[in-house]
Specification:
About 55% of the residues lie in helices and about 15% in strands. By secondary structure, it is α+β, with helices and mostly antiparallel strands.
Amino acid sequence: MVAWSMALPLRRSERRARWLWRSLASRLALLTVVFLAVPVLIYDQLERADDANRALLLHSAQQRGTLIARALEPQLSNADRASLPQVGDLLGRFAGDGLRLRLLVRPAAIGGDDGFFYVGAAPAVSTAYLDTERRQLQEQGALEQLSQTCAGGFPMATWVPRSSGAPEVVTSVIPIHTRFGCWALVTSHNTEAYIGSSLGQPYWRTASVQAAALIYVVMAVLVLAVFLEVWRNLHRFRALARDIGGGESPEESFAERNTVPELSGVAEDFDRLVDTLRQSAASLRRAAEDNAHAFKTPIAVIRQSVEPLRRSVAEEDTRCQRALTMIEKSLDKLDGLVSFARRMDEATADLLAPPRRRVNLSGLVDRMAGSYTGVLAQRSLHIRSDVEGRLTVRASEDILETVIENLVENAVSFSPPGGTVHVRLARRDGSAVLTVEDEGPGVDPANLPRIFERYFSQREPGRGMPEADPTGQTAEGTHFGIGLWIVRRNVEALGGRIQAENREGRGFRVRVALPLSQ
């Protein structure tokens, strides 16, 4: 027993986990998380690789600049003010293959970073470009540090825009100290290896990352758009199905509400199914009416033929009189069966194509409860109603009347003389709750699970309403045991719930909850 009780929650959790995995909303949420997590993880790995590549590029550029500076050092050691134009021409031998060189000098007699001025560039660049580069070197503190020590080296990654052509990346500033002053060799590159890298800019601003991000975003948007469109389409189908199930006749069909071409076949099948159900409901209503008419005619003929037979048979002939009485009772029962068969067929048609609208349930219950006062007085019974006003549901008024009639008349049939039937209607948790109670013997607890089964009855012979009614009661106490079964079927068709239980002490209670109309 303990193992069974432990296995039951486990099975429920397994079913819920399976439902969550199969749910389109769950998969959409999981897909969204994946689309958000993947770029974060990949970006982190790519950024680390780019950091290593950037360090390697800067180290290579600095080493190359240092070698060129050492090659220029002998010529710069003997330079003076008169030879400055020729010194600048030396750079042409080392520039090329995407490498650009600029040479600055600050004479020994001048102090501060403002004393640096350009003496050469290879290839030649405009004065505006040199001014921009000098300003950026000052902002980064390279010239200030050189003016103090004229030693060391400065690996850099600074973008310098040009008025024409691709921008350049300043990669190093190499100092050369001589008697004339402090020289500074500035190297820059404009090759794809440097321009396409993240040198001097955030990694996310590189062209490759931005292109990959754009492609990824487009892909994510397309995939999510497909899921969302299918989801929205299913919600449109659901709304239309609710309207149809509520008895409305929407102007649009499933095919007209569909926006996904791949679901057009499904939408058309839904439309055909709705048409088939409506045609079946109409056929059931016609068949119920035709069959009832076909059976009623011979029953009426037989009933009329019995009357002259009874008058012609002598009262002393007890055998014939008993036979005629049995025929009349059988006709009554057959008449009731025909009426109930028709009601059941009509109820089935209402379930297939329910003609629903907004119904004032409060007024309907109050009116029907009052209509039983005179009938119950003949049987020394009482009915008390407590109805909360303004409770409206979307349903068929005929179906609701059948539910109320069956519940009240079922309670009446079990009530003892002098007993009271209680009818209550109240709002509870967004539902209209109808409760019908009697003061009868109740139901055997062993039979409670079967109380709504078809043809099940715990009624004593001879108990019932004096006239035919939808619960299965007819004259002479004939009963078919379908009243509560019809009630449950109708209530569930309206989206409601029904519950039956014994009252404390004595009596029986049936509670029906129907969703309130918005």
